[in-house]
Amino acid sequence: MSEPPDPQPAPDALPEADPALFAHALRIAEALIFASDRPIQPARLQQALPPDVDARAVITSLLATTAGRPVELVEVAGGFAFRTAADLAPAITKVVEVPRRLPRVAMETLAIIAYHQPVTRAEIEEIRGASLSQTTLEALLESGLIAPRGRKEVPGRPSLWGTTPRFLEQFGLKALTDLPRREELVSEPAPQLSA
Amino acid sequence: MSEPPDPQPAPDALPEADPALFAHALRIAEALIFASDRPIQPARLQQALPPDVDARAVITSLLATTAGRPVELVEVAGGFAFRTAADLAPAITKVVEVPRRLPRVAMETLAIIAYHQPVTRAEIEEIRGASLSQTTLEALLESGLIAPRGRKEVPGRPSLWGTTPRFLEQFGLKALTDLPRREELVSEPAPQLSA
Amino acid sequence: MTQPVLHLRLDGFEGPLDLLLDLARAQKVDLEKISIIALVDQFLAVLEQARRVRLELAADWLVMAAWLAWLKSRLLVPPDPEEEVDAEALAAALTDRLAELERMRLAAAWLAGRDQLGREVFARGAAEQLRVEDRSGIHADLPALLQAYAAARRRALARRPYTPKHRKLWTVQDALARLGRLIGALPDWAVLHRFLPDGLTDPVERRAALASTLIAALETARGGAIELQQERAFGPILLRRAAPSEAIPDVRAA
């Protein structure tokens, strides 16, 4: 608290500030910071305060009194703002499920893994007739729909990929054998594809 | 921001609810209502509270503890929200931008819509004995205070208008029933209407 | 909506009803007790005054003036039981309209007198986002998975380089050899088709073999080893081993 001497003080007043005035300033500060759509800088707060009350001192006081409260004063970029306490976030936030749509490449890759597992990335590329980006594979991995199934004993020992129980769940399958046979989906010219 | 309820209650606390649980519920309620810029309905609050704590009881407690504070809990538009105390407005408006007041015509139109809803534009004009400019209706619409409420099944199928929850919020009303009853709308002895 | 033509006392009135209400208010606090006749006189007087300054008046003012003058005349004559319109009821309806407008004015004033959000009281300026989107779920079903597989395979297959199908064509040499082998075992006339190689499913290959076999048969017949016969155009071509003693009869080939 910087101490602007009270201009019209009772002779016995504190040298710093009139406590009633300071209390009023605290009320103003609390309401203003609450109402502002962006963090309040001390200079901005100062405009709203009685002339003899220092905005910094008010903020310091407010920081102390709101610490540990469900709504705390915090210093953020550009000034001071009220924020709900971090420990309450799980209770007050509402989780809304927004299922993602798999991109086409991911969906095709997943389908190929499902039908040809265990399968290497190179084999997937051959079956799809297009190269496969690492990100697509990683996204599928992250989604929990595929998992590594060891390595193929060929030069380079590439990872083999297969589907997970989560995959069966996602597509409502009891087992992989519930998938329609490949021949029902595409007429393959020759069985030369079982890479 | 209420006074912090004691989180570690004395062992002789009330037998009904676990006081620590209730104190936690109070924290959640305060944070939840504070975080939102729209009124929180008790049902929404209930979802966020521990199962054994009644949202109504928490609200009642919060209403009591925040009364007279710079930011008070108020009941508005079917829910509960924090609002700055009216006496602090002069200080706040020094810093926070204040929207323009609605012109008299718009206020009158709004009152007619509030009391006669759902009501067509022609009916509003009939009551006012004057035509209603499109700008007035647009201004009300833009402010979010009114909204279309279907069409009247008469020739031309004119739009029907009604007030919104935002209207209740704007004027601090719990519900439309908070509006004065028609019988209460009597002029005080000789209100001077300047012409 | 006040037109620029409305000057003087009409300035600031939002139409005839507004003026009437103002005049009625000046009469009595209770609108139910106002004198319609006095009201009409006052209204017409104001209008007259306005017209002296400005001749143009908006139509709705003139309509109201005419209607009020008519109403006044009806109110002054004793009620006629034969009369369809009840002047008293019309006057009462006018009073009701004025009362309703008055109530709405008061309601507007009541609203305006309340602490308004954003003016006298303030809500949380910077709301916090309470909604967390969980995007871990995946929107995909089995049909989509199967379609994806089929689409990927079809596309991959379509992308393969085109290689023309290798055709195994039955040459005349082949046909000659086959004919030579089979002819010895032939007891009687036999159709040419029987001399085609087995397992020819492709129609193109089958026709090629038939042509080669026919040429081979003609060749063999020319050498005198076999006889050919065709009864009619497009009829079956028959052949048999030539009788060793006989001379070559007429050979009618296709």
From TrEMBL, chains A, B:
<dbReference type="Pfam" id="PF04079">
    <property type="entry name" value="SMC_ScpB"/>
</dbReference>
<dbReference type="InterPro" id="IPR005234">
    <property type="entry name" value="ScpB_csome_segregation"/>
</dbReference>
<protein>
    <submittedName>
        <fullName>Condensin subunit ScpB</fullName>
    </submittedName>
</protein>
<keyword id="KW-0963">Cytoplasm</keyword>
<keyword id="KW-0132">Cell division</keyword>
<keyword id="KW-0159">Chromosome partition</keyword>
<dbReference type="GO" id="GO:0051301">
    <property type="term" value="P:cell division"/>
</dbReference>
<dbReference type="GO" id="GO:0051304">
    <property type="term" value="P:chromosome separation"/>
</dbReference>
<dbReference type="InterPro" id="IPR036390">
    <property type="entry name" value="WH_DNA-bd_sf"/>
</dbReference>
<keyword id="KW-0131">Cell cycle</keyword>
<dbReference type="InterPro" id="IPR036388">
    <property type="entry name" value="WH-like_DNA-bd_sf"/>
</dbReference>
TrEMBL record, chain C:
<dbReference type="Pfam" id="PF02616">
    <property type="entry name" value="SMC_ScpA"/>
</dbReference>
<protein>
    <recommendedName>
        <fullName>Segregation and condensation protein A</fullName>
    </recommendedName>
</protein>
<dbReference type="InterPro" id="IPR003768">
    <property type="entry name" value="ScpA"/>
</dbReference>
